[in-house]
Amino acid sequence: MGISAMKRLNIGLLALLFAILAPIGQDASLGFAQVAAEEAPKKKQKTRRVPSLSESVYKKLGEGQEAIDAKEYDVALELIQAALNRSRRYNENEIANLHNMLGYIYYLKDDYDGALREYKIVVEQGEKIPEGLEVTTLYTVAQLSYVQENYEDALYYMEVWITKATNPSAAPRFFMATVYYQMKDYDKAVEQMELGVSIAQERGTDITEQNWSLLTFLYFEKEDWPNVIRVLKVLVEEFPKREHWVRLAGVYGQEGYEKEQLYTLEAAYTADLLEKQTDFTNLAGLLMQEEVPIRAAKVLEDGLNRKAVERDAKNLQSLGQAWQLAQEVDKAITVFEEAAELADDGKIYERLSYLYLESDQYDKCVDSATGAIDKGGLRKTQSVYVVKGMCLFNQNKLNTARTAFVSCRRVARNDKDKVNQRICGQWITYIDRESKRQAQLAASSG
Predict the structure, then answer these.
(1) What is the pTM of this model?
(2) How many CA atoms are closer than 13 Å to the CA of 366, on its beta-carbon side?
(3) Structural domains of the chain in order of their starting residue, each with its CATH number
(4) Which of 97, 291, 327, 444 sits between 20 and 30 A of 171, alpha carbons compared?
């Protein structure tokens, strides 16, 4: 499988890159930030002293929250903005809480620029706001910057968050990997993904299918095939889906590991995961290469019965060839008969004529040879005339057999095919002698 084909196989991974982002929670923070914080074990730290909220600010925040709960976002915006516009000087903590609520309102109104502007004001208050608010908002700013495609800011704020968070989980590393991916810095994206995987494994926390898929995609973009295989093996073990098995088989084939490619597709087939025509035809082709034609025939027949494989001349011809090589001649003939009718040329009829000759079915042999010549597209038409002539001769139809060999000699002469000219000439001579002999016998007996 070439690189272009592999890219088509992996195109679905692009959609998974954005699954890492989570929605904003009801406390004006991104839900993902909360999850990351909850995963991190706490340790004793020096309590940060911050200015307290005045009763008036606390009241305004309550009114704003009531309007938000009622989904009256414009009312909430007006309430908080009016509070900020008052002449009274607020302390840093009050400013942060008011702007934090404004950021949330803008987010709910799908105004991400406004939300980002307000959340940045929150983190600008530094040591004068509660540590939890600062850390959560840093995470929020990083994610909103990503949504706004401001990737440098997304990385900056996430890195600041990591320095302030207590024992960060794998989640921010996976997030930074998506940012680096968007910047097409695949080396740093891989570095962050592998770091995230390591952290998750140390903690015994889950690594999602999306995480592994992104790592696969990144190694694919770097054309690091050993690592693509390594990560795909994790995916097929932990998330045994068709697409992962097929991708793994495809990379094995691309890298020349044909036996591993076969074993992978066989495992997927045994698990009843194959669905598409290429799944069945690729597996059958590999089985034919490994000289297991009866298994190939059964796989193709299964695909046809499921209607996953199209019942066209090409696929039926492949099935017929598999049955023929498996010494199941009767099954091969039945399939070739159907395929020959669907084919655009006479090549399958030609193959049928040989099979009928071998099995002494001379009438069908003649019909197939005639069908092959009529449809055309043959490599050597004179060879089909030879088969037709032999089947007619075996029926003692000497005159029509002679006609077939005469046609053979004529076509061979036009093609400058001296071998078949000689063979057909010899048959004509033999038939003439046989005709004479039979005539003499008939005369003597009369």
Answers:
(1) 0.76
(2) 15
(3) 346-446 (1.25.40.10)
(4) 97
